[in-house]
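# nightly structure sweep
# worker-07 picked up a monomer target from the shared queue
# config: single-sequence mode, recycle default, output format = structure tokens
# input follows
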Amino acid sequence: MGCTGAKPAASRGAQDVVGVVDGPAKAAGGRRTAGAKAQRGALPVKTPSSEVQVAISQPDVAGSKVARQGSSARRKSRSWQDSVLGCVRATEPGMANDGKMTADGGTPSTTCDPTSNPATPETSDDAQSYSPSDNEEKQQQRDFMSKLSSNISLVLSEALSGFSPGASAFDAGKVLEAHRKLSDSDEEVAVDEGEGQKDRQDLRRRTLRIYKRFKDSLNELEPEDTDEWIIDAESKAGIRLLGEELRLRFVIEFPDCDPLLTFVALCEHDLSQGYMPEIERVEALSEERPADAVWRVIKKSKWTSKVEDNIRWISAVDALDEPEAMLWVSYYAGDIPDDKALPAPVPGSTRSWGSRTTFGIQRRNEGGCCMTCSIITRPSAASCSALAMSPCWLVKRTARGELANFRDRLHKHLLECKELRDRLTTSCRASLYQEVLDHLEAKV
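# output follows
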């Protein structure tokens, strides 16, 4: 099962947007080259304002011609930005060149030629007396072209992601950014109005689920109240028994391991037997989105001594631009869509829905990475009773041992697993890894 996303819709979206931006130039009958030259910085011919004033005072034909040239040059300079702005507004459904909705809710035809010179009212003498300098006009054109490029890139990016607000950010792992875009759009998606609508509804549900899990996990990774925690001073590993729930938290330093490779190791869960020996089998059930997948994990729990056949979401978030400044991965149980057929548990096993594990990876300034880990599980009643009656020194040793075992096995996996490095380019999440790599390099 590959990370297919919504490619058919994406292809159509890209063609539609390119048609809006490029189509009018083709319809202009050979004016594409002129428009391209103007966008590259070709400036309209200008006449000094003093020359224009003299020409206006002379009634002869030559003076009138000079006046017309000066007025035309200034009108051309002003209309250049209006004409290009029309190209951007033309990509917004239902918006006319003046930014207002048309009567039928559609978009009027717009000539997308920056060199076009539509008729405009004659300017006053005061307006004619001002002529911007070459440097000012060049800077105005550069600034405007920069804004135009950003707007077109945004439109194309969303088009290639199926016209769903936040889709491109979601697939790049920037789920918090996707959540902000969905909140801003406040779109209501119908359930039975075609595949495109269903894809948008699916994206919304995924975004809301991961956003909630991310926010809930912050206090798990960095507890606000540590009074009831038993913390080992040597390893900084902490353990807490809260009712039937056991919580462990520890921080691991990997001075010789890349943060991206650590991120990849946690996402490629079918390779996790290399550092989680209790796992017997792992199977991907759904990998439709690079940053969000459903996995089946069969393992023998060290806390209950029983075989568990669990269904877990594994979600990844690039939160490098957020206040937490980390790469985030979480394994957790959650609502599975009705259209996902789940396999029955293997005979003799149980299916747990309460445990969750979360990792926060941060790059160290001196090299390598630092990983904070939170594990929350529900041990058997006997395990809870034994732990509750244990002296503090024994609980601390238990926490310290859990940390050392996990750290050493994961470290060896990161350094020696060749297939892990291959997954950077061969995995269905390769596009996500490339986005994260680019983001890490940009943050240096």
